[in-house]
Each structure stands twice: as C-alpha cells, then as structure tokens.
Write a structure and sequence with these properties.
The structure holds 2 protein chains of 2 kinds. Chain A has a domain of 39 residues: Histone, subunit A, CATH 1.10.20. Chain A has 3 helices and 3 strands; from the N terminus they run H-H-E-H-E-E. A two-stranded antiparallel sheet of chain A has the order 2-3. Chain A is an alpha+beta fold. Chain A is flat, with a radius of gyration of 23 Å. The relative contact order of chain A is 0.09. In chain A, strand 2 and strand 3 form a beta hairpin. In chain A, helix 1 crosses helix 2. Chain B is an alpha+beta fold. Chain B folds into 3 domains: 296 residues, no CATH class; 113 residues, no CATH class; 59 residues, Arc Repressor Mutant, subunit A, CATH 1.10.10. Classes of the chains: A alpha+beta, B alpha+beta. Chains A and B meet through helix 1, strand 1, helix 3 and strand 3 of A and strand 3, helix 1, strand 10 and strand 17 of B. Chain B: Its EC number is 6.3.5.-. Chain B: Belongs to the GatB/GatE family. GatB subfamily.
C-alpha cells in the first residue's frame, strides 16, 4: 500500500499539521514504507482466529454510578492559556 | 396522505432519517465520576478524564450500559452482547481529548423498530438502525465576549445514546411523530428526560429527495442539532424544497453538514464541517470490548415498565377507547396514570371524555403539570360518580368542575355549599314549566301549529329559571307533554 501526495496533504489537514509543499513527497515515501512494513502481518493466515484484545484475559472494568469527582474547577483551569469567569476562553469559533 | 413536493418537472418525495442524541439519565458521567446535573457553575463538574488531561484513563459507568440496554429493549432491538468503543477524531474547542469516545462498527444495540401513531388513528412502523453509547462534548458559548468563545466542560463526557433511524420517514409530520414517540418511550423507560430545551435530547436530520415512484437514494444533507420538534419539521421542509430547486435547475446536491437558522427559517452550509466525514475511527486502546451477559439483559427485560404501545392496546381492549383517545392518554405516563385513577370502577368512556376535554383544557389554561394538576384524579372521579348517580346533570357538572379548578375543593362539598344538586322533583319542575308557558302564549301556539323546533327554546327557558339545576331529561319529557298534550 502506498500513499500519494494528495493523501498526505489530506491527512495533514485533518491532523492540523502544517506542511510545506516540498515536504509532501518525502513524507509520502516514508509513510508508505511504514505501511508496507506493517502490511507484512497480512502474510499470516488468521482465518477463524478471534482478535486478541488484551494479553490478559480481562473484561472491561466498570464503575458504580456514584459522583466521586469534580468540584476542582481551579485545577482544571490551572494550565489554561486563557480563562475568564470560570470558563476556558478561545478565539471565537462561531458561524 | 403522502407528502409530495410539486416541482416544475414533476412530483418529488422526501426521504428522511433521524439521528437523535439522548442524554442518559445517570448520576455520573460515562467514563468518569463527575456529576451530570444541568446548570452547575462552569467547569465545576469536570474531572481530569473529562478535560482530556494526559495519562487519564476512562472507566465505564455500569448504569449507563444498563440504560442503553434498557432503551434498546424498549425499541424491540437486538442487544449486542459484545460491543466496542472507538475513537472518533476531530478538533473542536469544546472537545479537549481531540476525539470523542463513541461506538462505530460494533454498537451495543442493533436493529429495532418504533411505531408511529398517525393522526387518523392508524399506525406505521419505522426501522431503528442502531443505538450506540458515546461521550457528549463540552459547551461553547459565543455571546459573552466580542472576540472570544467561552468553553464549559461540564457536559464533556456525559453519556449519550445516539439513536439512528432507518431512512423510513417520508414527511416533516412523520419526523415530528417519530420524535414525539421516541421521547415518550425514553421517558417511560426513565433513560432520558427528553428535554429538548436543555439539550438533553437533540436531533440531526438527514434529508434527501427523489422523484415520486423512484427507489434510488440520492445524496443527503445532514442538518445538525435542531433543538425543537417544530424546528426539525421546518428544517426538513426547507431543505427538501432546496434540493428540488437545485435538481430542477440542473444542479447537484453536495453531501454536507448544514445548520438550521430558526430566526430565518432556513438551513445553510457549515464550512467548518467540510472534513467532518473523515473521522478516522479506530478502536479505543484504553477500553477493552464491552461484554455483557444474556442474564443481565434478561434481568433488565423483566423489569421493563408497560410501554406506550402496550398501554395503548390495553386501553383500547380494557376500556373500549378508540385509537386516537388511547394514543393521546398514553403519550405521557403521568396522564395515563391519571386517567386510570379516574376510570377505576367507573364508566371509562365518560372518564375519557372528562380527562381529554375539560381536564386537559384546564391543565393547559392553568400552566400546571399533570403531576400537580388543577383538579386531582380523585376529585374528578368523585364528580363522575355524582353524574352517574343523578346528582349532577352534564351541565351542572361543568359548573362544578370549574369550581373545583377555582377552589380545589371536593365536588361533594361544592354541591352542598352552593346548592348545585340537580332538581328531579317533578313538582318544582312543573311549576317552572307552567310559569314559562304562561309568559309565552304566542310561542306555545306556534309549537302547537307544528313549529316543534321551538321546544328547544322552551327547554332553555326552564333551565334558566331553575339556574340550570333541573334534570334536562325530565324537563324535555314534561314540556313535550304539556305543550302538545
């Protein structure tokens, strides 16, 4: 499997990564190499084998429906680049 | 009747599928121990998990799973004993993780159905495609500052059920009925409060059109987050017309996300969602597959309440109500209970007429709720007993009902206090009739000459003379005898 330049550009946009035009072609090559490397796994026959979700035979742990957290607005906002009146504030995003 | 848009090139039908986001009723969030109550101080109900802090791990809330299964059973849907959580990736200011934990190809609930109660009393079945569990995002507030948006993460991580219908709906009316019925079922089940104003039930509508008779599915547009049933209907109506106009002028519809501007009554493209259909889902590595036991599902099934469809069928069979009346009464659990209290041991048709008529009118006029009604079910029932035993005529009962609304007193007390008891004493009625006849000899003659329609006027005069207390049946009978006899 290989990625072309337009696929790399689309992925960069989705990931909000700014790339120069000159970076696209080398990245397409590198990413294709990674995909091809992983693709070797498809040589193994996995017919009838359940996907292994965990090395230990565990179920999904659950919590009881009890309020045990919250009331820490100051800590939640402590590292915010900007905050006001208990809210995070960001450049206006509205249409 | 089929909903058809008459275009210049022919008739078009609309194809609608609805995605409803229903907030799960639970104390804590889907994957954290923070509270879910509405209207708290900003960011006061946020844990490090909900704020997407590094290193935090989600742990699923067992009750949210139970609520999703309960809702699935209420929609007669297949419950998937194994389901998988996936990450839906997108960037937005109120999504601190950079992804929403949702379910993609293995949802907890599969196909089901929902029955619409149409206006003519008939029903129609709409397919449910799936129901999955996912996290809600935070809330962005845009009107607190000229250049900033304010973000409150209290809602971030609250459990939602996304309930997706099949594209089986064919008119704005059907879409409205679907939402009404879904809300009713959710409320009966106690899995979502269905409050669209507070955003605990939100709707996205997928709309496309096609020429009548065609079975193709054309490109659809998704109208996001419409917050009332009426607006959903308006948005669909506008969007379907837009599609017809585009096609008829030779254009093509582009698949896109649109928003509904309720002020202008129109939809418009949301440019920010241009890449919204590329969410790059993948199984969330923080969460193992969710595996539940059949016994767990069976236990929930055994505890399901009687749902609107079953209740409606029972009201029709047990009380002899028609489909329309039964449908209205069961729409809210509380109104169904109110009716059953009134009807218990009484004439159900009479009980139905009073509940659907004067009682609902008084309820609307008073602005009260069925939980705190203007007249209690016990008092309304007692009043019906007074009609049945002849103490009150239908007309007097209306007066007593109005007094019950006004004073909150029991009907027996009001009848005593105000002397509203129906007069069945023939002597008293006869005296009233004689007085009316004596005062109107010319009209008496007209009746005798064959103008029998005037009898009704005489009945009215006698009722007036007795302040409405005379038994109308007796008055009719005695009048006829006296005038014509």
């Amino acid at each position: 499997m290989s990625l072309d330049i337009s696929a790399v550009r689309a992925i960069a946009t989705l990931a909000r990564i700014e790339l120069g035009e000159e970076e696209l072609a080398p990245l397409a090559g590198e990413l294709s190499n990674i995909l091809n490397f992983v693709e070797q796994l498809s040589e193994v026959n996995t017919d009838g084998i359940e996907p292994m979700n965990s090395v230990a035979d565990l179920g999904l742990p659950m919590r009881a429906d009890i309020v045990t957290d919250g009331d820490i607005a100051d800590q939640i906002l402590a590292n915010a680049p900007e905050a006001a009146e208990g809210f995070f504030t960001v450049p206006k995003v509205v249409e | 009747m089929a909903y058809v848009i008459q275009g210049e090139t022919g008739a078009w039908e609309v194809v609608i599928g609805l995605e409803v986001h229903a907030q799960v009723i639970s104390n804590a969030k889907l994957f954290s121990g923070a509270a879910t109550t509405f209207g708290a101080e900003p960011n006061s109900q946020v844990s490090f998990v909900d704020a997407g802090f590094p290193g935090m791990l989600p742990v699923i809330n067992a009750v949210c799973v139970e609520q999703a299964v309960r809702t699935g059973l209420g929609l007669k849907a297949k419950i998937n004993l194994t389901s998988v959580f996936a990450r839906k990736n997108y960037f937005y200011a109120d999504l601190p993780q950079g992804y929403q934990i949702s379910q993609f190809d293995k949802p907890i609930v599969g196909e089901g159905e929902l029955v619409l109660d149409l206006a003519d009393g008939s029903t129609s079945t709409v397919g449910i495609e799936r129901l999955h569990l996912e996290q809600d995002a935070g809330k962005s507030i845009h009107d607190m500052h000229p250049t900033k948006s304010f973000i409150d993460l209290n809602r971030s991580g609250v459990a939602l059920m996304e309930i997706v219908s099949k594209p089986d709906l064919r008119s704005p009316e059907e879409a409205g009925l679907y939402l009404t019925k879904l809300r009713s079922i959710l409320r009966y089940l106690g899995t979502c409060d269905g409050n669209m104003q507070e955003g605990s039930m939100r709707c996205d509508a997928n709309v496309s059109v096609r020429p009548v008779g065609s079975t193709e599915l054309r490109t659809r547009c998704e109208i996001k987050n419409v917050n009332s049933i009426r607006f959903v209907q308006q948005a669909i109506e506008y969007e379907a017309r837009r599609h017809v106009e585009v096609y008829e002028s030779g254009g093509d519809i582009r698949q896109e996300t649109r928003l509904f501007d309720s002020g202008r009554g129109e939809t418009r493209s949301m440019r920010s969602k241009e890449h919204a259909h590329d969410y790059r889902y993948f199984p969330d590595p923080d969460l193992l597959p969710l595996v539940i036991e059949q016994a767990f599902v069976d236990g929930i099934k055994a505890g399901l309440p009687e749902l609107p469809d079953e209740k409606k069928a029972r009201f029709m069979a047990e009380y002899g109500l028609n489909a329309y009346d039964a449908g209205v009464l069961v729409a809210e659990k509380a109104s169904a209970e109110f009716f059953e209290t009134v009807a218990k041991g009484r004439d159900p048709k009479l009980a139905c007429n009073w509940v659907m008529g004067d009682f609902f009118a008084a309820l609307n006029a008073s602005g009260k709720t069925i939980e705190d009604p203007p007249v209690t079910a016990a008092n309304l029932g007692a009043m019906i007993d007074l009609i049945t035993d002849g103490t009150l005529s239908g007309r007097l009962a209306k007066d007593v009902f109005a007094l019950m609304v006004e004073t909150g007193k029991a009907p027996g007390v009001l009848v005593e206090e105000r002397g509203l008891k129906q007069v069945t004493d023939t002597g008293a009625i006869e005296a009233a009739i004689d007085a009316v006849l004596a005062a109107n000899p010319d009209k008496v003659q007209q009746v005798r000459d064959g103008k029998t329609t005037l009898l009704g006027w005489f009945v009215g005069q006698v009722m007036k003379a007795t302040q409405g207390k005379a038994n109308p049946a007796l008055v009719n009978e005695m009048l006829a005898k006296k005038v014509q006899g």
